[in-house]
Amino acid sequence: MSPFCQIAAFGGLALLGFAASASDVPQTVKATLLSNSIQLDTRNVKPGLVTFDVNNASDDKMTHELVVLKTDLADGALLVRKGRVAEEKFRKIGEVEDVAPGKSKKLVVKLAPGHYVLLCNKRGHYSMGMHTSLVVAP
Ligand SMILES: [Cu+2]
Question: Is residue 6 part of a domain?
Fold first, then answer.
């Protein structure tokens, strides 16, 4: 095989690899907000665009939200002051505010590899258990 053919074959494989890369595939995570937890239909996604389909399914008739922070801390280990997590001390990736009971909202964010904490930061809700984590890895 000539050197040119080898390069061409290698280039073809690289292109195939790129086409199959999961980072270009739309990913959706269903996030269900309950009064004492946040449930995800998956806790592992690939780097790239991720759509959070956020549904407030709590039976407490309260408005909730979903805040996405990038941190290596465990989702239950964030410092709480006066009933709220100090979001400004973290790298905030995005949030959907004020999801009314029974309603859904979408949040589209681009996620790099790492560990993320998702929480509701309405006063007192984090401490009631409204938090979970998500891992982004290739
Ligand atoms: Cu809440």
Answer: no
